[in-house]
Known about the structure:
Elements: E1 4-12, H1 20-42, H2 47-59, E2 80-86, E3 92-98, H3 104-114, E4 119-121, H4 122-132, H5 145-156, E5 187-192, E6 198-204, E7 225-227, E8 231-237, H6 239-244, H7 247-258, H8 262-271, E9 278-284, E10 289-293, E11 297-304, E12 309-312
Helix pairs in contact: 1-2, 2-3, 7-8
Aspartic acid binds at residues 10, 65, 162-163, 185-186, 204, 206-207, 216-218, 224, 236-239, 242.
Amino acid sequence: MGWAIALHGGAGDIPRSLPPHRRDPRLATLRRCLDLGTAALRAGHPALDVVELVVREMEDCPHFNAGVGSVLTTDGTVEMEACVMDGNTMRCGAVSGLSTVVNAVSLARLVMEKTPHIYLAFHGAEAFAREQGVETRDPSHFITEENKERLRQAREANRVQIDYTEPIKGQEAQAPPEDDNSRIGTVGCVAIDSAGNLATATSTGGLVNKMVGRIGDTPVIGAGTYANRLCAVSATGKGEAIIRHTVARDVAAVMEHAGLSLQDAAARVVAGVPPGNVGLVAVSAAGEVSMVYNTTGMFRACATEGGRSEVGIWPDDDDDGAR
Ligand code: ASP
């Protein structure tokens, strides 16, 4: 069976006209993070450590919508959120509303390991971060010029925006500018180690121009993030749709109750969400990998001990796209 790993850097309406200077740094980061995770699995590190390691690396990269690349709220502030879950024990931790924590995913893990709770948010989560002594920075550290521009464009169009270009249902559509720079995305990683432990982690800044206090799918166990003994799942896309469809938990439930393989379960769940709303990466206890989306594309990468290794954005980059 062996180890397997998959990661994503967000799903959405990613046009093929995405210019190389916007595309290539993200692909390079995906490759680097895949290599990092693969090396850790080969060295025998537990799946939970590996997904945390990979997501931390992606949080530190301004090309993705998490950590230092987080998109901005209506007030121009950052509210980061993250989640981790260990499949075999079903222990999990989540955080929301962070404005100073460098690696939200590690704080989520500390919630899991050091508190009797699962989910801490806003000032309680920030206070816990201070108590634990995790690395923090002034809120301005997380606010990039690119994200100020994304917020400006979203405000002008009067829309809440996934980190791509599709407006949320009910809001007016607007064509993206030719060299639109808003193709960044939430990050996530799932893995199974050679001892059979499954784990998942997801981290995000949420949606551009989201209301202050808005919580998305990422930290909601069973929506954006879920793992049990059958599989580990990390989702991306429009959080409100992902929460409504309990996407991550549904993949596990379909495997368990309908007896489907990981790939069939993931394809069925994603097909049940309105088109343009969701993507996910998942691994199963049998070492299968699935990367499925009903959006134009998804920044993604995977590798298995059996020799599969892929990095891609659009469906024809591999054979696994749902469209
Ligand atoms: N799912 C995230 C959210 O709605 C956004 C994303 O995946 O890019 O907060």
